[in-house]
Structures are given as C-alpha cells and as structure tokens.
Amino acid sequence: MPSFKSPFLLLLSSLFLHVSLAEIICEDLPHDICAFSISSSGKRCLLETAMEADKVEYQCRTSEVVVERMAEHIESDECVQACGVDRNAIGISSDSLLEPQFTNKLCAPDCSHNCPNILDLFFNLAAGEGVFLPDLCEAQRINPRRSMVEFMSSSGGAAPGPGLSDAELSAGDDALPSAPAPDFLD
C-alpha cells in the first residue's frame, strides 16, 4: 500500500514552488495559456469571449477568486492533459464532475499528485456543491455509476439519465466495474 507521506510532500512542495521571470498579469496572457493560470496577485485567470468588429475574440481576465498559497503559476501542458481539462473552455463549472471520464482523470495519480492548482480548483468547485472531492474520488473508484448519482443528489442535480435502472443504482460493488484508486486517498 503506497504511503500517504510521499504524495502529501509532493503536493506541499508543489504549492510553494514556482518559476517566474516577470509579473503575471492575466490580461497580458495569450488565450492559449490563460485558463488554469494564476496571476502574481494570486487571483485565478479566466478565459472569456468578447465581440470585436463582429468577430468573437478570446480574452484573458483576472477573476476575483484568490488562490491561497499559490501565485504566478501557469499550468503545464502535462497537467492539462493528465487532468483532462481544456484550456479553451469558457468558464469552469462543477458540471464536469458529473462526467465519469473527467472524474477518473482528475482522481488519477498523474493529476492528483502532480497538479495541485487544478486539484485545488476542482476541490473548491466540489465543495461549493457540498461534496468532498476525496470522497467523490473514492466513490468513483468503488462504484462509478453510484458516485455520479450521489454527487447529483448532494448538489441538487438532475435525476440519473437513461440507462441506469434502480437495480443498477442500488446494486453492490460487485455489480459494476471499478476504476483504479486515486493515490491521494491512501
């Protein structure tokens, strides 16, 4: 069984490490690195659209969301890929936590141990819905379909979609396939 110490130390060290040659101002960032970046002031950058000369243009803006213990951070392409996020997404929603493929990537060790910025963002989005992200990841590992139903019920989401019978939703762990356990839960 993996030790909790190693991932925890990696997470802590990642929170305090950053490389910056100049001050990061969201409005000065190109749109292809805006999303999942944090300004020098510690505020998240977000990608928005604006109409300019009858053409939709992407613009990077500073949000009011302050990230504790992290500033001047531009997310790596490796983390964007490992966590399954999209730099071109306009706004970020907790709705992505309802997608099993996304949750699998977010909870996987490649993301959960190496990408504290993205993990922090989605941890806070889940918390805003009344869900503790490590619990969602554990539920996803044990019973993926049930975890989505539980998330939807705790966040006031819609009823389960077609294809999920009451028997499937109430079945034990043996009835549905399991995903690998995210290491940050160990």
Features:
alpha+beta, two-stranded antiparallel sheet, 9 helices, 4 strands, 186 residues, disordered C terminus
Structure commentary:
The protein has 186 residues and is of the alpha+beta class. The protein has a two-stranded antiparallel sheet with strand order 1-4. It has nine helices and four strands, in the order ααββββααααααα. Residues 152-186 are annotated as: Disordered. Residues 1-22 form the signal peptide. This is PAR1 protein. Residues 153-165 have a biased composition (Low complexity).
Brief characterization of the structure:
By secondary structure, the protein is an alpha+beta fold.
**Mean of pLDDT:** 76
Unreliable runs: 8-20, 157-186
Major sheet details: 2 strands, antiparallel
Binned, the helix content reads: 25-40%
Structural class: alpha+beta
- Percentage beta strand: 5-15%
Count of discrete domains: 1
DSSP strand count: 4
Looking across the biggest beta sheet, what order are the strands in? 1-4
Please report the distance between the alpha carbons of the first and last residues. 8 Å
Number of helices: 9
Instruction: Evaluate the radius of gyration.
Output: 18 Å
Shape: globular
